[in-house]
Structure formats: structure tokens, C-alpha cells
Design a protein that fits this description.
This protein is an all-alpha fold. The protein has helices spanning 3-30, 34-166, 172-186. The chain folds into 2 domains: 1-32; 33-186. The chain is built from 3 helices and no strands. It is a single-pass membrane protein. One of its GO terms (molecular function) is proton-transporting ATPase activity, rotational mechanism. Keywords: ATP synthesis, Cell membrane, CF(0), Hydrogen ion transport, Ion transport, Membrane, Transmembrane, Transmembrane helix, Transport. It is found in: Cell membrane; Endomembrane system.
Length: 187
């Protein structure tokens, strides 16, 4: 075929396409096949329905639940912070109260110990005074006993000496008188 016949065939094909486009209206002018467009639109609607029903709704529900859990967790965290602050305040108050009670107990124990110490010292002084007075009494009794024994011994010695001196010169009556006088002088 020659070139001229090819050009004529191309022109005829373009004219056929132009007639076909003119017969289909606006969609034909844009190059859209309305049957194919309608089928694609229905397919898109089905895909959109399936996507919405099985993907978007469950995903939205999951995201809403997660958001609710996060909000509840934040509220719980705030409540926990408030409870922690309250607990810390309570703990501080209890520590202060316990320290006050411990100081009171220590003061009471110290006062009691001081009182017991003073009572012990007073009792020890009383015991010492009692022992000293008993010792003085014992010493006085021993002294009196010794003096009495010394007097008797001295009287015996005086009588013996006087007897030696006066053995033959006095009688027994005179001896007793002499002894009695000697004892009176010694006392």
C-alpha cells in the first residue's frame, strides 16, 4: 500500500472515532465509557463498604478504647499522686508525733532516773548515818566496858598493892572501907 492509501485509512479512522464520540455526548468527549465507569463506581462502593465495616469501625473502636484506657490511666496517676502526697503528709505527721512521744518518754525516764538517783543518795546517807551512829554506840559501849573493866582491874591492883603494904596492919573491915573509897575516887 502506498502512503496515500495509509493516510486515507488514518483519516477515516479518526472520522469514525469522532462520530462515535459525538454520539456518546459529554462523557464520550472526555473519553469515559459510562458502563465501565458505573461498574467501577459500584466496585468502589463495595470496597468502601467492606473497608468501613471491617477495618475502620473496629480500628476506631480500638482507638477509642485505648484513648479511654489512657485517660483512665492519667486520672489514676493523678489520684495516685494525690494519695501519695496525702500519705507523705500523714507519714510526716506520724513521724513528728512519734518523735514527740519519744522525747516525752526520754524526759520522763530521765526525770525518773534523776529521782531514783536522788532517793538512792538520800537512802545511802541515811544508811551511812545509821552505821556511823551504830558505830558510835558500839564504840561508846566498848569504851564503857573497857573503862569498867579497867576500873575493876585497877581496883584489884590497888587492893593487891594496898594489901601488900598494909597486910599486917589492917583488918578486913578496914580493907573494905579502903576499897570503897578508892573506887569512889576512880569513878
Amino acid at each position: 500500500m502506498d502512503l496515500q492509501s495509509l493516510i486515507l485509512a488514518a483519516i477515516e479512522a479518526v472520522q469514525e472515532v469522532a462520530q462515535h464520540e459525538a454520539s456518546e455526548g459529554v462523557l464520550g468527549t472526555l473519553g469515559i465509557n459510562w458502563k465501565l465507569f458505573l461498574a467501577q463506581l459500584i466496585n468502589f462502593g463495595i470496597v468502601l463498604f467492606i473497608f468501613w465495616k471491617w477495618i475502620v469501625k473496629p480500628l476506631g473502636k480500638t482507638l477509642t478504647e485505648r484513648q479511654n484506657r489512657i485517660e483512665a490511666g492519667l486520672k489514676n496517676a493523678d489520684l495516685m499522686d494525690m494519695e501519695k502526697k496525702k500519705f507523705d503528709e500523714w507519714r510526716q505527721a506520724e513521724m513528728k508525733k512519734t518523735r514527740t512521744e519519744a522525747d516525752q518518754i526520754i524526759r520522763t525516764a530521765s526525770d525518773s532516773a534523776t529521782k531514783v538517783k536522788q532517793e538512792t543518795i538520800v537512802e545511802a546517807h541515811k544508811q551511812a548515818d545509821l552505821l556511823v551512829s551504830q558505830a558510835h554506840a558500839a564504840i561508846a559501849a566498848d569504851k564503857e566496858k573497857m573503862v569498867s573493866e579497867a576500873k575493876q582491874e585497877l581496883a584489884t591492883l590497888v587492893v593487891a598493892a594496898s594489901e601488900k603494904i598494909l597486910r599486917g596492919k589492917l583488918d578486913s573491915r578496914k580493907d573494905h572501907e579502903l576499897i570503897s573509897e578508892s573506887l569512889k575516887v576512880v569513878k
